[in-house]
Amino acid sequence: MGHETSQYLKQFLSGKNDPGTGQENGRTGSYRESFMSAAQKNPEPVQAVSDENEPQADAAAGPADETYENAPEENGQFKWENNVARFPEEDLPFLSKKSVQQLESNFRELMIVEANINALAKSGNTIYVSSCTDGDGKTIAAISTAFALSFYSGKNVLLMDGNHHNPQVHSLFGISESPGFYELCNKSATLEQVILPTQHKGLSIITMGDTGMAGADQDRAGKVLKQLSAHFDYIICDGGSVMTSSLSLRDIVHFSAALLVIECEKTRWEVLQIAEDKIKKSGGPTAIGVVFNRRKYYIPRSVYKLIS
User: How far apart are alpha carbons 181 and 195 in whole angstroms?
Assistant: First the structure.
């Protein structure tokens, strides 16, 4: 809240309601079918998240919590193929056709994303995407990473919105902001209500939720994230900027790795070093990677493709 949307993000969002995107009745046409596969029927019942050793809530207090923390990973509760069967196809969130085309234009880079983050993944499967300052393109980097892992690597991926001040994931996928992670942590919603499969095979999302609510309890948030990680190959969080938001440094401690997005020829090395030190001193992950965004081409891009 209070932050202006960057020009790069505006360009990415511009295709959402563009009549040239091939949407019909608010939904896309043929491109949607290329990302959809036959969903398995009869998904297993989805259970709610709960804290260990916590008294069971009564009906008046909201959704009853059922512990599944020790459930085996192979139960497939939130595997995309199972979860997608709960929704009519036309109700599934989706990126605009122009946004997908923009992602596909970078297919060479996206195809090797999993190989590039392999070292980070050794620490765990939860990755917090941040930046030194606002406007460096971390939201697009987070979505690109999640899309690459699900579409090109065939993984079951959860994209979370973790930007308390300026959440964008719900806007990019054309859905409401709530219910989301805030409601999940405050026990006013269940996992079944907040984990939404998208029209893009293998990719699910969780929005930030109602930012007017009190902030999520950190112990609760950590437990929720730990339980979510057992159901997905990767969790990618679009977080806030570490130099402008103390909430980012508070949240990042729950993740196994971090990706810092920097704008090429703009972000100074000293600033990046300060951001890294802040993460480590706050108790955050020691596995930290860097994404170079908005690379400039000093010779024709076609030449780079020929020699790459």
Answer: 9
CA end-to-end distance (rounded Å), the chain: 41
Q: What is the pLDDT of residues 91-140, one digit of tens each?
A: 999 999 999 999 998 888 899 999 999 999 999 999 999 999 888 889 99
When divided into structural domains, the chain yields a total of 1
Kindly state whether residue 225 falls inside one of the protein's structural domains: yes
Bridge partners of residue 162, in order along the sequence: 239
Within a domain: residue 146?
yes
Q: Long-range contacts made by residues 262-266, C-beta under 8 angstroms, separation at least 24?
A: 262/131, 262/132, 262/136, 262/290, 262/291, 262/292, 262/293, 263/135, 263/136, 263/137, 263/293, 263/294, 264/292, 264/293, 264/294, 264/295, 264/296, 265/296, 266/136, 266/294
Domain of 264 in residue numbering reads as 113-308
Q: What is the pTM of this model?
A: 0.74
**Are residues 71 and 228 in contact, defined by beta-carbon separation less than 8 angstroms?**
no
* 146-158 pLDDT per residue, tens: 999 999 999 999 9
Q: What does the pLDDT look like over 239-252, one tens digit per residue? A: 999 998 889 999 99
CATH number for the domain spanning 213: value is 3.40.50.300
Q: Contact, 290 vs 137, CB < 8 A? A: no
